Amino acid sequence: MKPNFIPKTRVKICGIRDLEIAKICKEEGADFIGLNFAPSSPRKIDIANARNIVQFYQNQNDSPKVVLLFYKNSPEDIRTIRNSVPHDYVQWVWDDPEIDSSNRNEILGQNQICSYRVSEPIEDDDLKNIPGEFLILDSYSKGAGGGTGESFNWDFVYRIKRKFLLAGGLNPENVASAIAKVKPFGVDVASGVESSPGQKDAQKVIDFIRNTKSVS
């Protein structure tokens, strides 16, 4: 009889702005990195630095998947960045006022990761119109697309069977307990591995990835 197989929990480090942290993510086995192009975010990266990170990954084996993140970017801005920065996925926020469902795929492409902000108990039926292989369930904060460092009540998502990355208020100290309670497909962190808004802390990134892998 084969032993039960427990799939590893995926790790996404979001809001990377420099090559040093990108290298650490690869070395430690992160599955995804997020490059944030939201105009009001303290984690906003420019195209030149984003391309440097992607170029480094393209020359390495087993590199993390690259996710471009947008919130309140114009459709023209999204198209320009998508065409300028090689990537694997495009991340967007479900209630982004700049993205119209009528032309969403044309703006974002086919490989989408939607961030859905949770403020009350939800079930799979609430997510049925969201495209993509998996999505992100994040905390709700008015006017912010994510990265606030605030968590939500994890009991709100315990009925969800669809694959999702858990986000919102995660850090190296609580990620193991979050995985044990929620059992998500993956975890997504931004501010929880920073020394100040937008400034990643190398040791916190390492600890977050290792603590995730230790329980999955």
Any chance you could write out the topology, listing elements then pairs?
Elements: E1 10-14, H1 19-28, E2 32-36, H2 47-58, E3 65-69, H3 75-84, E4 89-93, H4 104-108, E5 112-118, E6 135-139, E7 164-166, H5 175-182, E8 186-189, E9 194-196, E10 199-200, H6 202-214
Parallel strand pairs: 1-2, 1-8, 2-3, 3-4, 4-5, 5-6, 6-7, 7-8
Antiparallel strand pairs: 9-10
Helix pairs in contact: 1-2, 1-6
Protein name: N-(5'-phosphoribosyl)anthranilate isomerase
Domain N-(5'phosphoribosyl) anthranilate isomerase (PRAI): 11-210
Pfam families: PRAI
Run of helices and strands = EHEHEHEHEEEHEEEH
Q: Spell out the CATH superfamily of the domain at 10-140 and 175-190.
A: Aldolase class I
Supply the CATH architecture of the domain at 10-140 and 175-190.
Answer: Alpha-Beta Barrel
CATH class of the domain at 10-140 and 175-190: Alpha Beta
Q: Please, what is the oligomeric state?
A: single chain
Largest sheet: 8 strands, parallel, barrel
Low-confidence stretches: none
What is the count of helical runs?
Answer: 6
Keywords: Amino-acid biosynthesis, Aromatic amino acid biosynthesis, Isomerase, Tryptophan biosynthesis
GO biological process, one term: L-tryptophan biosynthetic process
Domain N-(5'phosphoribosyl) anthranilate isomerase (PRAI): 11-210
EC number: 5.3.1.24
